[in-house]
Amino acid sequence: MEIQGPTLKGTAGGIQLIPLESGSALGLHLSLGKAPLLVVAVSNGYVMCGYLNMETANKLGDCAGRVSGVSTFEALLEAKINVVSDAAKTRGLHEGITAREFLNALM
User: Fold this and answer.
1) Which range of residues forms the domain containing residue 45?
2) What is the CATH number of the domain that holds 50?
């Protein structure tokens, strides 16, 4: 699946509107070192790549999921969530679902 929509790109990455089944998400892509930093956010939470820290998400009370080994928005959406925040658990979200399912459940 190719992501379509407005994009703000620079040499270090970009911001993109990502259509999902339940609405739109905002994707942030930053080129860092040997792998990009990726975050896809909706109004009630987000999915992040392995660069970001779940301990901090828990301290802040964020509803978050984390995936690993992705370098594009498309790969992130299809990846299985491998860690969820405490706030996500209270909403019935869990490891093993795709990031797409996780995000759609938060809209």
Assistant:
1) 7-105
2) 3.30.1980.10
| Residue 91 belongs to some domain of the structure | yes
Are residues 4 and 19 in contact, defined by beta-carbon separation less than 8 angstroms? Answer: yes
Distance, in Å, from the CA atom of 26 to the CA atom of 7, rounded to the nearest integer, reads 10
pLDDT digit string, tens, across residues 21-62 = 999 999 999 988 888 999 999 999 999 999 999 999 999 999
Total domains, the chain: 1
Name the pTM for this structure: 0.89
Q: Which residue shows structure tokens 């978050």? A: 64
What contacts 24+ positions apart, CB below 8 Å, involve 19-23? 20/77, 20/100, 20/103, 20/104, 20/107, 21/100, 21/104, 22/103, 22/104, 22/107, 23/107
Q: Does the residue 2 lie in any domain?
A: no
- The verdict on residue 1 lying in a domain is no
Determine the Cα–Cα distance for residues 27 and 89; give it in Å rounded to an integer: 23
